[in-house]
Amino acid sequence: MKTIFITGASTGLGKAAALLFQNKGWRVIATMRNPETATELLALENVSVLPLDVTNPEQIQTAVEKSLELGEIDVVFNNAGYGLLGPLEALTDEQIVRQINTNLLGVIRVTQAFIPYFREKGAGTFISTTSIGGLITFPLNSIYHATKWALEGWSESMAFELKPFGIDIKTVSPGGIKTDFVSRSLDSATSSAYEKMTDSLFSAMEGMMEAASAPEQIAEVVYEAATDGKNKLRYVAGEDAKALYAQRLELGDEAFREQLGKQFI
Predict the structure, then answer these.
(1) Active site residue: 144, 194, 235, 245, which one?
(2) Torsion angles phi and psi, residue 188, rounded to 5
(3) Any residues with CB less than 8 A from the CB of 159 and at least 6 apart, and which?
(4) Distance of CA 24 to the CA centre of its chain
(5) From residue 38, how far is each of 150, 183, 243 by CA, in Å?
(6) CA 224 centroid distance within chain
(7) Is 144 one of the catalytic residues?
(8) pLDDT for the residue numbered 140
(9) Is beta strand 3-6 parallel, antiparallel or unpaired with respect to 75-78?
(10) 126-146 pLDDT, tens digit each
(11) What whole-number distance in Å separates Cα of residue 79 and Cα of residue 36?
């Protein structure tokens, strides 16, 4: 029986992935900040729930050690993350640091903790949830984009680094997901100087959410990445994300930016 370790598994994509892999016959180690809330997962066979705040390096080490005590691990799915929206000048340093700690450093630290195990084993797969926001950008999301673009570049570099040891690293880049991301997993700041741009962005986001994927659909892409055996780095997930990314590639960076900017500026 194969095993997957998942961060951010309490809701949304992380939970959907936990349920899917369990249904496919995998053992699942689902981690989250408040494991006592995971009543549905706790009731399932072959699912272990552990506490993990990915901004806490000591807790990362503890969660990894406890997971390895349970048996072999085949896939690590770095999924924990959230959005930060607002003009840079309005963001506090605390908001910026927390975003980078969660979305970027959390992934790096969890991966770093598992590498020695996978290297000695000679096999293993890391999968990270990035975003279509790691391949294209929108205004007022600069720090969020900074973390997601960083993850894409970091993963591409790590793919070279890990390949000699039989370890794969992959990214899943979804577009909109029909979850409580906006209400539960979004931090924000406002400034009256950016009111018009903010209104335009929220209007665009509402339109994008109409074409958003269900978390179960994106979880299927995660499962594909975990099981297809392909030497493939990037999995763009969801029809909305695929369309946007294809448009950028077709038009080229500057023409795409000019077209997109007309919606907001």
Answers:
(1) 144
(2) -155, 165
(3) 168, 169, 233
(4) 21
(5) 30, 19, 34
(6) 15
(7) yes
(8) 94
(9) parallel
(10) 999 999 999 999 999 999 999
(11) 19
